[in-house]
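Exercise 3.2. Students should predict the tertiary structure of the chain below and write it as structure tokens, then compare their answer with the key that follows.

Predict this chain's 3D structure.
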Amino acid sequence: MPKRHSFAYGRTLVISRLILLLALVALVGVTVGLTPSFPTLSLAILSLVLVGYFVLLTVSPLLTEHWVTRSRLILRQGWYFRAVIPFAEIEKIEAADDAGRSRVPLGIHRPMGQPSLFVTGGRQNLVSVRLTHPWRFWQAFGLTASEIIFDVIDREGFLSALAERGTSLPPIEADRADAELRD
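Answer key:
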């Protein structure tokens, strides 16, 4: 049994961010072209901001995946979101009904008044993880969520990897009252 299984997520978010970046570059190009003496320092700062946007929000999601390890689920989206959830903290994992959700937000999104945190790169093959108690996520402005909804490209493979991990022995918990190994 491998130490971890990796699962890619949708790329719709990356495509929309790339289109936004291209529009911003075109806007800066038109502004520089129409301004007779555009300040060099301002152009350098704008260029650095656009390059930072490109690396952090467009390239980094292409380099990360969700992981299922022996004892936890690790959800990632780029270099800006990471949630390490031990299996003991998960109440229920199930395929989310794609048709039941009229509009799934892309990216990291926590709708006000709802206990769900969306960590989506696409709007298909959604999976819902219900936590045993609400968690606070700094990536969602410190709001709490008791359910995380995310997408994976291979939902059936993801759910079968979780089922496979569920049949393996749980890790030893040294803090428990009866943690000694017995024959």
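Discussion points: The chain has a mean pLDDT of 86. Residues 65-167 form one domain.
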